[in-house]
Amino acid sequence: MGKKKETISLIDTFSEFNELKNIDKATMISVLEESFRSVIAKSVGTDENFDIIINPDKGDLEIWRNRVVVEDDQLQNPNMEISLTEAHKIDPEFEVGEEVTDELQLEDFGRRTILNLRQTLASKILELEKDNLYNKYKEKVGEIVTGEVYQVWKKELLLLDDEHNELILPKTEQIPSDFFRKGEHVRAIVARVENKNNNPKIILSRTSPVFLERLFEMEIPEINDGLITIKAIARIPGERAKVAVEAYDDRIDPVGACVGMKGFRIHGIVRELRNENIDVINYTNNTSLFIQRALSPAKINSISIKEEERRAEVFLYPEEVSLAIGKGGANIKLASMLTGYNIEVFREIDDFDEEDIYLDEFRDEIDGWVIDQLKRIGCSTAKNVLALPREKLIKEADLEENTVDEVLRILRYEFEDEENSDENPE
Length: 426
Description:
By secondary structure, the protein is α/β, with parallel strands linked by helices. It has helices at about 1-20, 25-45, 85-90, 110-140, 210-220, 220-225, 255-260, 265-270, 285-295, 320-325, 330-340, 370-375, 380-385, 390-395, 400-425; strands spanning about 50-55, 60-70, 80-85, 100-105, 145-150, 155-160, 165-170, 185-195, 200-205, 230-235, 240-245, 275-280, 300-305, 310-315, 340-345. Participates in both transcription termination and antitermination.
C-alpha cells in the first residue's frame, strides 16, 4: 500500500511539473531526466544503462533498462547483466552477449527511491518557478503591470498577477492619496526585482516618473508611434508634474497632441494619478527658453544662467513671483527638476529703495541656507521679507516657525536702529 501511495504522489508531482507555465519543453524534459537519472544512480550504482523517455504531454514517463546476457554462473552485476535463463523467459531466442531491454516500473525501485525522487522533483519545481519568476519580471522592469489587491498591510500592498505571482507595492511607492481595498485592480510599473537567496521579490511603483511616461505612451498614440518624444519628466506624486515633449515633424503640435481637445487625452492620466496636475511644455535646446517655459505660468522679465554652477537667476515683477514659486514651492521645484538647473527667483525692482538692505549683508547673523531659501521665493532684500505675511514665509520658503521669527526679529531690529539713529542725531 505504501508503494502505491508514493507512486500516486510522484505522479501528482510530475503533473504539477508539467503544468508549470513559461517553461519550454526542452528544459522541462532535461530537468526531469536529470532528476530521474540522479535518483536511479544513487539507487543501483549507475544510470548509464538506462533509457528514460519523458512524455510531457501525457504527464508520464517510461524507464527502460539495457542488460547484457551472460551464462548463469557468470552473473556478477544484476543491474548490468542478465542470466541466460532469465533472458529466455523474455524471449527463448536470446543468446549470450546479446542485449536485453526491459521496462521497469517506478515501484520496482522501492519506496525510498520513489520518496527521494519526489523530493528531488519538488525541489526542482520550486527552483524553476523562482528562476522563471525572476527572469520574467526582470525583463518587465519599467513596464506597467496590473495586479489584484490580495492583502493590505500598513507599509505595503500584496498584489497577485494573472498567474498568482506575488507583487509588492510599498507605501513609499504609492501616491499619497492612493487607497485600495482587497479585490481591486492596481496599475503600476515594475520598479525593480530583488533576488536574495533565490527568493525573487517584485517591487512596483506608482510614484516613479517612468510610470507617468508609460501612461503617456499608452494614452497618446503619437508618442507610442514615435512621432512625439518625451524629453524630461518631473513629478511630485499626487500633486503636480511637468512633462517636456518634442515633435520631430513641425506639422505636429506636441503639447496639443498630448493634452487633446478640452484636455480629453490627458484626463485619463490625471485620473489614474489621483488628480495630479500635469503641465505639458515644449522642449527646446535653448536653456534660457526652456527654463522660462518650465516656470510657466509665470512671465519672466530676464534670466541669468550660471552654466558652471548649473544655476539660473530669474527676475520677475512682484506679482509674478508667487506664480513662479507655486503652491508650497511646487512650481519652482519641478522646474528645477525638469531643467536640471537650480533656479533662484528675484523680484524686479524698478526703483531700489536706498534704505533697503540686500539679504546677503545679513549672512553674519542669519544662516546662509536660510537666506538662500528666502531668495528662492523672490526675497532678495530685507524689505521684501518684511512685506510678506509670516505664514507665507513659513510655507513658501519651507522654514520652521522659530527660524522665520528669528529672521523677522533681526531684520526689524535693523530698521528700528536706523529709525532711532535718525531721531537722535548727535
